[in-house]
Amino acid sequence: MPPRSHLSLLRGPLGAAYASALIPGLGQLLRGQRRAALFAVSPLLLIALIVLLNAASVGLVSYAATFAAPGRLAQLTLLLLLMIPWRAAVVLHAARGAEVRSGELRGGVPLLLALALLISAAPHAGAALITSRAGSTVDDVFSGFESAAPGNSSGPTPTPPPIGDRFTILLVGADAMGQRTSFNTDSMIIASWDRVGGWVSTISIPRDIVNVPMGNGDVWEPKINSLWPSAQRNKTLFPEGPAVALRKALGAMFGITIDATAVIVIPTFRQLINDIGGVDVNIRRSIFDPSYRTGDFRGVTLPKGNWHLNGDCALAYARVRKAAGTDDFNRGGRQQELLVGIRNQLAASGNILSNGLALLTALGDGVRTDLNQALLPTLAEGAQAFDTSRVVSAQMRAGDGLLRYRRADEPSAYGSVVFFNAKRALQLGARLFPTPGTRPYGWPVAKGEPALGKESLPLPSPSAGASATPTPVKTPLPAGPYQALATCNANVAAPSYIPSPDPTSAPSEELSGDPSAEPSASESATPAP
What we know:
The chain is an alpha+beta fold. Helices cover 38% and strands 12% of the residues. The chain is built from 16 helices and 15 strands. It has a six-stranded mixed beta sheet with strand order 11-6-1-2-3-12, with helices on both faces. A three-stranded mixed beta sheet has the order 7-10-15. The protein has a two-stranded antiparallel sheet with strand order 4-5. A hairpin with a 5-residue loop joins strand 2 and strand 3. Helix 2 runs antiparallel to helix 6 and helix 10 runs antiparallel to helix 14. The longest helix is centred in the first third of the chain and has 34 residues. The radius of gyration is 29 Å and the shape is elongated.
């Protein structure tokens, strides 16, 4: 009898082994062993049925978010590892009878069988690696803020109250690039989700605001971006930690409750954008800043239009403040735009899985929160479903009746500072974060909107047959196409140093506020001890 060829071997038991390596039980089915095939595939079918029933019950995104609960990913990792010996047993069963006469294939059958076993085990081993890394990432991300900076936290996580009709979170960007070890909160955005009306309200907090109430009768006199590191250094005055201190202060400023805090360090932001495949942004005005120096950048240029930005260019868009028409105030609006763009990209990106491990590494290294993990399914479902046309934003800037620079005759131990009007800040809080189900309004006041403090006036009743749903006050970004921006590195020489304008100078006429504004907080605040 002539020796059998490799192909004839693969058509026999070895072929069945490879079939079962790809799909459990397929090899048994090809060999006519129907009961064995059903037994081999039944664990996979059972798992698939459980996943489908849970996804159908609570939604796929919410179900996936439940695995962020403590211990769930570790259990999933163990299950995936336990499936490896089961898959091996199925392959070996399908390969029974894969014997050849002495000298046939020169011992190639064991090698081919080992390859089939490797093929069957690889998906489970790879998935176990990802879930194990995801578990470590979740532990890191939800580890709280007991350490001096994100990435070294080991303390207990404060537990916020249960979610209600409104959920509000403070998003903090920590400028901790390169050799800098300080942890000033140079980017602060309050984002609030009205679960009744479906509105999402956001506001950026200028970092140079001073004399912010602490919520306990005291006032934080220095710049607000210095509160976090000060709270880290002085646990006696701030026993609840820096995150709680900052959100209580900003909550008192606007008369709201902030439920949780999340911090992302700058390098992680850039990596996150790259790992999700970039972000779409509508740049309304061309930006050119020859003084922007970060990494290899020698100036930055961002042309007007619809652009798909990589991590470096998105970071530049969020940070630039010295180009014509940009400053510390309006970059907050750009940061809010990027938040919406990131949400949209996460919802649509096909690159998240392919870059899964890199994304998990970036998140674990540079994101921290004191958010209650049990809230993730609800928040994930809301993030997936919310309408971008219901995002209402507020941008404060000096001279708008809410903020002002210090006067030339007004001494300050903290350099260039910004004072806020306490009464108007509370009015803005009521305007932007009203009773759930009530239409919010942004800032500055847009044409046709009620003035600050007048939002409580009765609104016209909807006509008969019309929907009572609030009318969106902000339209989505223009539809594509969003062309990829090849580079935003201007590659220009550094400009000659020109002193910045005196921050105490009067605001331009365009930005001047109401001269009848109430006294600022600095004129009535009592310093903290």
